Amino acid sequence: MEFKRARTDEQREERRRRILATAATMLTEMPVAKLSLNELSRRVGLAKSNVLRYFESREAVLLELLDVEQWEWLAHLDGVLEAGDGTPRERGDRLAAVLAESLAKRPALCDLASAHAGVLEHNISTEVALAHKRATGRTFQEQMRLFLRCVPELGAAGASQLAATATLITAAAWPYSQPSEALLAAYAADPAVGAMRMEFTDILRSSLEVTISGLLARHD
Question: Are 121 and 53 in contact, with CB atoms under 8 Å apart?
Fold first, then answer.
């Protein structure tokens, strides 16, 4: 592919979108840990130095992609979450189920979340860190709005705590639900060991159910 310098803001923004779209496609084929800037550059059709004109590092690309994935997930939740009938606990259980099931269908988002604090927030400038944290604040506000639609009894503080806890549990549970070949063989070889295997949707749903019930009890 012949390289042509982007000369207008529109062309530069289009190139940024292409880099993000390519990274998103790569995450359907490989985990975050294996996505390299060299391979991303090759697939985009730009030299690595030219990709760095738009994003200062691999981590900066993936942080912005995390924000994109978050908003796509929230748009989905906005279309499916509703208050419904039942007690606060019953509505909380339904909310936990929707959150767990919807996240399980978004492996790229879960993988990015699991790499977030330990990997993606490193090798970035203060400017990128500020932009990312401000974007995270906006997604947290949207999560709170959606949670309160279903369980207003949580209150703002409870909805904020639920958003934070959902993020932390997702980040922790996802890697455990993606075992290596050696672990898969161990699970198959010994039923007692196999019983220790974690299923992402189940652990996330049950953890969020307990979190919501606890927050409701403390709020009361």
Answer: no
| pLDDT beyond 90 at 200 | yes
Looking at the structure, do residues 187 and 125 belong to the same domain, yes or no?
yes
DSSP 75-130: HHHHHH----SS-HHHHHHHHHHHHHHHHHT-HHHHHHHHHIIIIITSS--HHHHH
Domain tally, the chain: 2
Q: How confident is the model at residue 1 (pLDDT cuts 50, 70, 90)?
A: very low
The H-assigned helical ranges of the chain are 9-26, 37-44, 48-51, 58-80, 88-104, 107-115, 126-150, 155-176, 181-189, 191-194, 200-219
User: Which of 40, 48, 73, 30 has the alpha carbon at shortest distance from 166?
Assistant: 73
Distance CA 13, CA 177 (A): 36
The pTM score is: 0.90
Q: Supply the range of the domain harboring residue 215.
A: 58-219
